[in-house]
Amino acid sequence: MVAGGFSGAPTGEFEAKITSTVIISCVMAATGGLMFGYDIGISGGVTAMPSFLKHFFPIVYERTIEENAGANSNYCKYDNQYLQLFTSSLYLAALVSTMFAGSINRKLGRRPVMLMGGVIFIVGAIINAAAVNIAMLIIGRILLGVGVGFGNQAVPVFLSEIAPTRIRGALNILFQLDVTIGILIANLVNSGTAKIEGGYGWRISLGLAAVPALLLCVGAILVDDTPNSLIERGKLEEGKAVLKKIRGVDNVDAEYNELVQASNVAKQINNPWSKLFKRNNRPMLIIAISLQVFQQFTGINAIMFYAPVLFSTIGFKSNASLYSAVITGLVNVLSTLVSVYSVDKVGRRMLLLQACAQMLLCQVSVAIVLGMKLTDHSNLMSTGLAIVVVILVCIYVAGFAWSWGPLGWLIPSETFPLETRSAGQSITVFANMLFTFLIAQSFLSMLCNMKFGIFLFFSGWIVIMALFTIFFLPETKNVPIEEMTEKVWGQHWYWKSYVEVEDD
């Protein structure tokens, strides 16, 4: 889809301008990523605060204080199932809630789902900030998870549907960019609140999660729903008016007719869930689930959740570990900007493959350094080597941030046909949250038992990811969202045997 293109061209490109309405709508909707990212960053920093540990997890606190340091394995100080549950319970709630959000998304539209997600998240943040026991913490985290499930269901679909094709990748990655900005803000907040006298800084950190959720609510109130959603729900004239508004031109008949045709097909499907699992949709479904599994088994969330804990393990003191997490958060943001600039130029596959090589090198290098210099009860490694590990982690984070991070959300959101799009996005979020939960719940225990070998474990997965990308992941760059079946799946060497491409 190019500005000034020809309506109804054989290539499927439509006349469109990059309007302020599109930019504003996408920026506001992408605050759902800010909400998600803040939570990822805040939980890791809070679990490294002595006052938080002493209040809720005294056993872990006793292991971490300096006079007891020699009695505990360097790799096992933070190994505690309840501490891991504090982080992972959110993702367990998110994977359940997204299944309900998918049906609401289809029946009511993208905006109501985003609004509900923001409101529920705000309530969870308030409960977390006021928590006096572990039960309140977990209840608050569950509500946060419901909000995340709703937001991650609606926002990527909203962005893909409203964006012109030629910049769809860049605008969709605004969601992931906001995730990285949220992580950075959380790290900065934690580094500040950790210094507050009285030991209540963690309450401020957890309570401020309500701010990005409030921004998502405001955005959901102010933006228009997508033309795809409006047409799907029978609001044809409103859908056409919004399409003219977001494209900045009056001649939208060709694109509008294509959306109506897709909607008519969708309405013939009484149960999109049964349709989703039909052979014709199998390529999109397998790709979507695989990307979520691979995204988590890069090891990125293990590092982003527990960056302060990880840096404490290799020798940094509490404040220094939080500062190191800020550095990785800044790298995360800047590197995601690389993806915004390049994803619609070099394509999805090139970014994924390049990042695999970069992340593999860093993971293996970290494993070698830790294996040689950090044993169970030895003195922690020198400051110089600890800094080397931080640099390697930053290079690793950079590779992830311009590839598997944003593209893990972008590719599924742009490949499902309209009749199964909401259901497909639900499965995508479900798979993401399921494997995020598994990693969050097990990482500290894995670190304790596998030690430096945990980085070799993730390295093996990166090799599998690279092979999968080479053989099974087609390029979706510059393909109109309603023409994926014909132009992508119908022409792939393997997946074409699964899809039926109908002649016009």
From TrEMBL:
PANTHER family: MAJOR FACILITATOR, SUGAR TRANSPORTER, MAJOR FACILITATOR SUPERFAMILY-RELATED (PTHR23500:SF531), SOLUTE CARRIER FAMILY 2, FACILITATED GLUCOSE TRANSPORTER (PTHR23500)
Family: Belongs to the major facilitator superfamily. Sugar transporter (TC 2.A.1.1) family.
Transmembrane domains' residue ranges: 82-101, 113-132, 138-159, 171-189, 201-223, 285-309, 321-343, 384-405, 426-446, 452-473
Signal peptide limits: none
Cellular component, GO annotation: membrane
Domain of life according to the entry: Eukaryota
Protein name, per record: Major facilitator superfamily (MFS) profile domain-containing protein
InterPro entries per the UniProt record, alphabetical: MFS_dom, MFS_STP/MST-like_plant, MFS_sugar_transport-like, MFS_trans_sf, STP/PLT_plant, Sugar/inositol_transpt, Sugar_transporter_CS
Alphabetized GO MF terms: monosaccharide transmembrane transporter activity; symporter activity
Entry's localization field: Membrane
Domain Major facilitator superfamily (MFS) profile positions: 25-477
One Pfam assignment: Sugar_tr
